[in-house]
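hiii, so i know i said id send this last week but things got crazy w the move. better late than never?? heres the sequnce for the chain we talked about at the cafe, plus the structure i predicted for it. fair warning i was half asleep when i ran it
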Amino acid sequence: MSTEGMSREEAEEYQKQLVDEKMERDAEFLVKKAERATLRTCLRDKYRLPKSEQDDNMIQLAGDDIDVPDELLKMVEDDVAEEEQNDSLLGQMQNLQNMDMDQIKEKASAMATEMKTKAEEKCSVM
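okay and structure toks below
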């Protein structure tokens, strides 16, 4: 919007309002970027990925204004708890129960037969 047709006072007030709105939008944008950086940091911790200095700087820049949605944090925490359970000895034993032993036997037998035939091809003694 142009300031033509406005008095000087109105134009100054309009410019001041525009600057205030821009500062407010910039502050909200900074908080959103920091929230995203916090979530990325949580995911990096979860998957044991290297930390990002850029994300750490963004989080420090925003300060205490960061508020990651509870649903997202709960999803990350649930995944961590599930992985810890699967990594435990009991979790590994449960995974063994879910395996198809007949299929494993067939694969092992096929692999042994394949190795035997390759060895026979390469070695004249066998």
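btw DSSP finds five helices and no strands in the chain. thought thatd interest u
miss u guys!!
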